[in-house]
């Protein structure tokens, strides 16, 4: 409906008229044949309310102007205080950071510690090289009498790490003994016949390549270090304990 605002017949009740506000029907109605009431009016603010509104607006404007004046007057002092506060905060933050600069004494101590560590490593390497050179030097091994060797064979643990020379033959070197050790019959003297070697021992190699070319029944000369005794099972179902030796050098001199 595009009619101007006014009273019109009520679409829902022909006996009534209803007010049209120009956009929509209002809830106000009147009998069709009576004088329609005036159109509804919007409430207007009272004179007192209007006066109060003007006073509030005026007070707010004065408040804003006063604030601007105070800010202009105190701006210089506040700026100085702010600069001082920022500088103090920056100084405090900087002083709280850990120092990454070492003093001359700290640098010297660090260098001395590094030098000492390097010196210890070099000394350890030199000692290891000296031990290896001695291990490969035949002159560092004792030639024992049969009696002295019998004492070692009796209690090899008491003579552990003693370097001696042994002669003998390989009595067993197979899958039972493993690739790093074999059983031998030995003595501290070299005999002309293999059956004269009557001390049953275990010979162990830290490097299997050292005994890779050794086989059962080989006649050998060995430069060894005395080690702890070993107990192993025999083919007869029992067990036996024998001296053991770590071989450092070995030479095959023949076959039995």
UniProtKB/TrEMBL annotation:
Organism name: Rhodococcus rhodochrous KG-21
DUF2510 domain: residues covered: 5-37
Protein name stated in the entry: DUF2510 domain-containing protein
Record field: transmembrane: 55-74
Region (Disordered): 1-50
Record keyword Nucleotide-binding present: no
InterPro entries: DUF2510
Pfam annotation, one family: DUF2510
Compositional bias ranges of the Pro residues kind: 34-43
Keywords for this protein: Membrane, Transmembrane, Transmembrane helix
